[in-house]
Structure to design on (151 residues):
């Protein structure tokens, strides 16, 4: 089995970062290229009753989100991945699970490494992780994230 392309979908949360040690180990072991993907959740589809407000404002919010995402991707690469020498950074807009699945196919990923839940996860398995696991055409390594237990 050859692993040349690994996908790490991230939402920039602490939970998502817990997958990094595994990702780094696999990257070194297989000399694989890592694709870091951040998906901007689509805000809304402007309806006709929004008139001129909807489309322009939503587009401006997406552009602002893309700028912020680029900065965060650069920061993650500098902080955790030594500047990302074998890393490619990507941003998509849409439903996170669907965009991850689209990316896997379009970029011919060999493996996905992701945390079982992200920023908004209140359960052991988040819906994005579950959808990716159930529908991915390639293996998905999930890093379990357990809720903190208060004393």
């Amino acid at each position: 089995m050859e692993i040349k392309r690994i996908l790490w979908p991230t939402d920039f949360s602490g939970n998502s970062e817990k997958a990094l040690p595994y990702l780094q180990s696999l990257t070194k072991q297989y000399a694989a290229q890592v694709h870091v993907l951040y998906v901007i959740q689509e805000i809304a589809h402007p309806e006709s009753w929004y008139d001129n407000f909807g489309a322009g404002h939503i587009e401006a919010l997406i552009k602002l989100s893309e700028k912020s995402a680029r900065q965060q991707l650069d920061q993650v690469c500098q902080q955790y991945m030594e500047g990302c020498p074998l890393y490619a950074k990507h941003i998509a807009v849409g439903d996170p699970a669907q965009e991850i699945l689209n990316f896997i196919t379009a970029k011919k990923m060999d493996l996905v490494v992701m945390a079982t839940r992200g920023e908004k996860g209140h359960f052991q398995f988040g819906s994005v992780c579950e959808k990716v696991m159930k529908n991915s055409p390639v293996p998905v390594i999930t890093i379990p994230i357990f809720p903190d237990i208060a004393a």
